[in-house]
Amino acid sequence: MRNYFSFLFIILSLWVKSQTIDNDKAHRRYWYYRTRMINDFMKIGKNQGDCLVFAERTKLKTILKK
Q1: How far is CA 42 from CA 14, 15, 25, 36, 54, in A?
Q2: What is the pTM of this model?
Q3: Across-strand partners of 42?
Q4: Per-residue pLDDT reduced to its tens digit, 22-51
């Protein structure tokens, strides 16, 4: 039984170790997604309603159909 728990502990330890991200990679990923959110999904401005995150992005102008 002890061997079973030892084996399970080793397998779980290796799995957790493989799931971790080094700090440099996490840092680059954070800045990539932060820049993308600000540039692609936000309208920056000083008026009321500016700096809100869009639900989706599109290159075309939205046309309301009646």
Answers
A1: 40, 38, 25, 9, 6
A2: 0.48
A3: 53
A4: 778 888 999 999 998 888 777 777 888 777
